[in-house]
Amino acid sequence: xxxxxxxxxxxxxxxxxxxxxxxxxxxxxxxxxxxxxxxxxxxxxxxxxxxxxxxxxxxxxxxxxxxxxxxxxxxxxxxxxxxxxxxxxxxxxxxxxxxxxxxxxxxxxxxxxxxxxxxxxxxxxxxxxxxxxxxxxxxxxxxxxxxxxxxxxxxxxxxxxxxxxxxxxxxxxxxxxxxxxxxxxxxxxxxxxxxxxxxxxxxxxxxxxxxxxxxxxxxxxxxxxxxxxxxxxxxxxxxxxxxxxxxxxxxxxxxxxxxxxxxxxxxxxxxxxxxxxxxxxxxxxxxxxxxxxxxxxxxxxxxxxxxxxxxxxxxxxxxxxxxxxxxxxxxx
Length: 332
Prior knowledge:
40% of the residues lie in helices and 21% in strands. It has a single domain, classed as 3-Layer(aba) Sandwich (Rossmann fold). The model has no long low-confidence stretch (mean pLDDT 95). The protein has 11 helices and 16 strands.
């Protein structure tokens, strides 16, 4: 099998590529290496040996995407993980956010339609396509917040109401993937993901907040928290996500227009301050927390209902935060 992974030098992409190479598969990585740490991750992947072919290029350029398909396809599977990933960056440069997330995603799925129509295709979307969830009451749940009446989390039946340029561009990309399944019969799976974390994640304040918190606590850096610290997310360890990726590859063809919510689920829901406290306990270092006003249009709570992913692929996340944070810190 030959697999294309766009964004394969990113944190999640590199974790997937390692798993594919371990299976002895041919892997083509298309990445523009714009993210912090991408060059180092690509170098470490190359050092693993196996059949890895890296291509340096921008998915926003249709000719670059077409060339990857023409030169190395047809592909058995396409994992489209390349993206602009930060809400804050999308607000300062919405045009670039559109070019990567919306136009780039169209370029990828349109190349599949024309040049590799038999490929199984996976698109990484985001919980931000649901918007700010203003219509759901937020209630206290001990040290964290919860959504009233949604104890099992947000399901895929929730209407899309994206806010911020990032939410809009990710929704645009996922709709092209879904429509190509319904209109052209392509095998596509859309994953709306929540709070992915794990080893080798870029440690930046605006991208991968769990890894950034770990770095700030360990190094005694100021750790900015927007709001009172009870903002709550369900944490998804990267190995659990890759397990689902492989199930998509191995399983039966997906239902037409398949969309799944993927996150840690209610059992892995934690507030920001809960994560800080656990990192302090694990590292033996005191966090230097600074509080600021809440960011506009941010979700106070997002917890994923993963029932649909279980129905289609038998998948549930298994790594709880107490274990995942230890692995993030290299303690296990």
